[in-house]
Amino acid sequence: MRFAILASGSKGNAALVEHGDQLLLIDCGLRFKTLRERMAELGAAPADLTAVLITHEHRDHVVGLAAMARHTGLRPHMTRGTAHQLNFLADDFIPLAADGEFELGGLRVRPYTIPHDAREPVHYQLAAGDAVLSFATDIGRSNDYLLEVLGRSSALVLESNYDPLMLAGNPSYPASLKNRIQGGRGHLSNDEAAALLAAINRPALLTVVAAHLSDNNNRPELPLRLLQESAGRSGHMPAISVCPQGVPLPWTELP
């Protein structure tokens, strides 16, 4: 199994997961033209996709979905709550439920509930053999359920959205937006991401990617340092990298 991130952040979210003859797109938050161009850079094309998985209805996750569905003929997987918010008819999507694990060509897919301000949001854990890839962005707070799910990971794409001091001192963000970001259904700060990593960091965890970074309230070196420090204190150091907003992450192979 391998994965790549085409975009991550408030300007768009999309990732690819490949295993055997399966090529999955997780979220479609880029215009179709941009999505097609970024896929081409990785040697892939929309026609190669075998499934599209949607996390929730926010624009930065679905802006290219209608065009993608038209061009590929694929019905996206999503929760009924997400489909309702997007005005999808029953025949236009494949319904899924949190913790309702299913299989796509030997790839086990587990949607799991995330605390975010959407109708029925989920994110995805994908497993093939011993490789377990977890996506964990758009998360307002960690909880025991998330720790149980993410504790199985051998690779983790983890939200590290903002630095609290930068957000607090940002004059262009009104108090309502700051409260939404910091709230229990908003986004994880760098410190919260580091604490989550500390809680699940085990020898099986080989790769961590900090993602969904804010352009305005973060800098890539901040989550990188905090995640490295957090892992170092546990005595186990996975490979840690950062995917800044708007900067694609090329294929990462999982053993």
From TrEMBL:
Organism: Candidatus Amphirhobacter heronislandensis
Name the UniProt record assigns to this protein: MBL fold metallo-hydrolase
Residues of the Metallo-beta-lactamase domain: 11-187
Highest taxon of the lineage: Bacteria
InterPro entries, A to Z: Metallo-B-lactamas, RibonucZ/Hydroxyglut_hydro, WalJ/YycJ-like
Cited Pfam families: Lactamase_B_2
Lineage, opening ranks: Bacteria, Pseudomonadati, Pseudomonadota, Gammaproteobacteria, Candidatus Tethybacterales
SUPFAM superfamilies named in the record: Metallo-hydrolase/oxidoreductase
